[in-house]
Specification:
alpha/beta; 2 domains; seven-stranded mixed sheet; 12 helices; 13 strands
Amino acid sequence: MDEQDPLRKFKEEFHTQEGTIYMDGNSLGLMSKRAESKLLSLMDSWKVHGIDGWTEGEHPWFTLAEEMSSRIAPLVGAQENEVMVTGSITSNIHQMLSTLFQPTEGRSVILVDELNFPSDIYAVESHIRLRGLDPSAAMRKIGSSDGYTLASEDILEQLTEDVAIVLLPSVLYRSGQLLPIREITAAAHDKGILVGFDLAHSIGAMPHSLHEDGVDFAVWCHYKYMNSGPGGTGGLYIHERHHDLLPGNAGWFGSDKTKQFDMDHEFSKAAGAGAYQIGTPNIFSMAPLLGSIEIFEEADIFRVREKSLLLTELLRKGLAEGVPELMDVTPQADAERGGHIALAHPEAARICKALKDQGVVPDFRAPNMIRLAPVALYTSFSDVEQTVEILQTIMAEELYKNYSNKRNVVA
């Protein structure tokens, strides 16, 4: 499989540690040599040009976000004017909700799910409070019957007439379940509900078709499968049908570029998604993404998805045969899973520590979840096979008992 892999050359593009198999790209992707080069290049532009770096050099800072946004758009299936590289997931949720959440007496609920990442929930609660509403009434959570996944019928059942917006993850961060974006969006629109998705665990792992699917808005980070570095600048998408709306949180970088430096106190809104930028871009946090984009343009996101599915299929087959005591909670069907496999076990924290000491970098999620993400650009099929063999040894010899069953993050 490695010999026939059309993406095998890209592993050489990344800084990998000898003797280590990195299976945590769904939390933080590895640094590519091109990302490193672009960061150094942008630092040099500051060194050489000083303030003139805003308008001079290979990548002028003033239009850097727009340059990258037009190249990110194909990865999420959007038009160029619908995407903006800016902010973070949470700040972009705040921007989208401040712009689009317009509660009325009969339609004031924001629908979320009980398995979502906490920051998304905090953002939703804050907007409900800002409008004088009670989160216990105006934020509704879709329940999970198994604690790992969401049933489509449960989602659709909650799309009631009092819901204004539904905000869901494209891929659930714990179980790796991929939700049916098009189906949910169509059903919500039939009820007059706006739909947003958090693409944190899908962008860079699979293609999207946000515009064609009619999704109203989406947010994401670039530091997982997109490999842009820790805390790297995120992104947002807002369908062109909403581009007439003033940003709920306005700032000078949301201005029409031709008028931004007029310093007029009257806001001249940019025509597309650029209007939903707020402050001055963080140039060095954006720079590595330039190198990452180049790699994705060469690799092709459809080939990335094809290999990702093969990698996760090989991984889960090996796990089922070799370590059946680890419960695989990721949906089986290709169309229902993202780029990682989630395993539940009461000794998960211990097992993750043992894996690290044996040369495999996994991801632990409290209280009992091991996540393994074989990333198509830098994980080989041999890496997957070795990971399974190491896990077999850890479980058979109970090596995990040499560690505490607590995460290493100090409160």
